Amino acid sequence: MPLLTEQVKEASQPKKLFAEPVQGHVSLGKSLRFILWLVPTAVAALVIFLSAMGIPGAVIVLVLFAILVAILVSGVRVAAQWEKAIVLRLGRFHGTKGPGTIYIIPILDYVRFVDTRTLVLNIPRQKVITKDNVPAEIDGALFFLVSDAERAVVKVQDFQYAISQYAQASLRDVVGGLSLDELLSEREQIQLHIQAIVEERIKDWGLHVDTIRLLDIELPEDLKRMMSRQASAEREKRATITKAEGDKLAALNLAEAARTMQQSPGAMQLRTLQTVDGLGPSPSNTVIIFPAELTEVVKSIGNALARKQPSSPQE
Asked: Which one of 271, 285, 303, 310 is most buried, counting C-beta atoms within 10 A?
């Protein structure tokens, strides 16, 4: 039962739509405020000592002094090098301060620190349907930074959540207008297109998109198997065509060599000698060589006998 209860609790909790930064504002003012507290502590010790000595009014002075110091010290803030402090005084924008040590009026001022470094948000896996009705799941990463801290705080409620949602919608819109082949082959153009759409909208929020990267494109398993068979058939087709072209070139070269040997009788003799040399000195090979001149003589005798044959009775 406890395990079932935990599973129900996890299922009821809303899923995070974007990745939060590892850390937000770095509180650097605690040590400074501690140092500033050392001075009133020493003064308080002196007042207590004077009160113990019987000096009247020392306790009242001590209380008033402690209250004054607490109010003054509580307004000290320290912004890191990569932070901007947005100060609101009585609900109105007062100014941008930092980095470094800043001072705000306690009770009247509200300060919010904005990280101006390059931030990264995860675009969660989106289920989209391409233009040719192929379902796919795509996730990515969004890299952006705050270029104007005032507008990022004043003009949009939560700029991280807003830019994450807008990037998700842009991703679905862009991929929905592409075919599967375009989705798989034009990833760089898709990323640039989504980046341009998001940048055009969020520039009024004081944000700047550095880049958008598609991390993974998940397709149905049956479609993956069909694409694998198609790729295999395409490779087999290219192999068959390459082999046929090689056979054709070999046949053309052999025909050209035959014509060359026919025009030059000595070429055939050289080819014969190369063949004999290629047999090697193995004792299992027996080679009988007839003189090339004997072949020519036999051919000449055959031609002479063919010319001297008597004509047919009809002639």
From this structure: 271
